[in-house]
Amino acid sequence: DLADSIAYDLNVLAEQQYINFYDTLDRFKKETKEIISGRLTFLQSEPVILFNDVIEFLPQRVGRKNAALIDLHHHMGIPVPEGFAITYSAYQQVIEENNLIDPINQAVAKFWNNDPFATKELLALQDKLRSSKIPSNLRKEVEQALNILTKEFGNDLLLTIDFTIQGESLDTTVSNNK
Fold first, then answer.
1. Please, are residues 159 and 173 in contact by the beta-carbon 8 Å criterion?
2. What is the DSSP string of the chain?
3. pLDDT per residue as tens digits for the range 53-105
């Protein structure tokens, strides 16, 4: 309520220049309620973020390793390879598109409760994730980011995929030869 009041006062003083604060506050309230509820949740953002386009530290959106690269580049002036991050929001789109929210929550709950069938469910879930349909808007965003990098650096790109869940990281390197 206090944040709403501050946003209102700021907009009155600044002749409605910060009207977009209301959308941010609404999203923040929704995300806070989801976090408090105990459900796994991700902050909403664009599905793909080019490193060049980011000016803030966003570990909650792009993961710790990508955020560290962005931070090194923008705040410390250390050159890093150009690239992009596929955000947690994109992951959430895939999960929602393939109706996997409830199965994931159930499998995770069984795992934490030491259910003997949890491993079997998690392996089945892994197969579902591998065969999941990628939403067309997400596919277009990734292709667009790859095209931007290809135009700037050529077809011989080296892509590193960092997939992190609760501190466990899987790093993979693939080559892009268009």
1. yes
2. -HHHHHHHHHHHHTTTTTTTHHHHHHHHHHHHHHHHHT--------SEEEGGG--S--HHHH-HHHHHHHHHHHHH-------EEE-HHHHHHHHHHTT-HHHHHHHHHHHHTT-TTHHHHHHHHHHHHHTPPPPHHHHHHHHHHHHHHHHHH-SEEEEEEEEEETTEEEEEEEEEE-
3. 665 656 666 777 777 777 777 777 787 777 787 877 788 888 889 998 888 88
Please state, in angstroms and rounded to a whole number, the distance separating the CA atoms of residues 108 and 121.
9
Pair of tokens at residue 119: 């491993």
Taking only the tens place, the pLDDT of each residue in 123-164 is: 888 888 888 998 998 899 989 988 888 888 777 776 666 554
For residues 74 and 57, give the distance between their C-alpha atoms in angstroms, rounded to a whole number.
Answer: 9
Strand partners, 174: 159
pTM flag (> 0.90): no
